[in-house]
Amino acid sequence: MSKQSTIFVCRNCGNESSKWFGKCPVCNEWNTCYEEKLNTKLNNKSVQKNEIAPIALNNVKSQDIIRTCTGFEELDRVLGGGLVKGSLTLLRRRTRNSENLP
Ligand SMILES: [Zn+2]
Fold first, then answer.
1. Which pTM was predicted?
2. Which of 19, 53, 80, 86 is spaced 20 to 30 A from 66 at the CA atom?
3. What is the 21 CA–ligand 1 centroid distance (Å)?
4. What does residue 49 show for φ and ψ, rounded to 5 degrees?
């Protein structure tokens, strides 16, 4: 089964939309919209099976992750041993005004 659909693309920034637009909502340029036809095959054979197969939890190999101690014993414990390079950790300082907040 083959289905043809249309998308509208901004010539300036590449923003894609299912609807035509006179002014691009992303870059705010006027008259940059053009129509592009897509051939979307909705055939099960064309959909590749996941190349990544699930594995049992006991077969998962742990990675050696370098953790940096923060100097706060409790925080390091909560973080699993410290901060991980390249990770993002949100911290919230509790203040007098925030005591009643969730
Ligand atoms: Zn645009």
1. 0.37
2. 53
3. 10
4. -65, 155
Task: Say which CATH number the domain at 31 has.
Answer: 2.20.28
CA of 41 to the centre of ligand 1 (A): 28
Give residue 5 CA to ligand 1 midpoint distance, Å.
21
pLDDT digits (tens, 9 = 90+) for 23-46: 999 999 999 999 998 866 555 454
Q: Give me ligand 1 centre to Cα 2, in Å.
A: 29
Report the 10 Å Cβ neighbour count for 33: 19
Domain count, the chain: 1
Tell whether 68 is covered by a domain: no
- C-alpha–C-alpha distance, residues 41 and 18, integer Å: 18
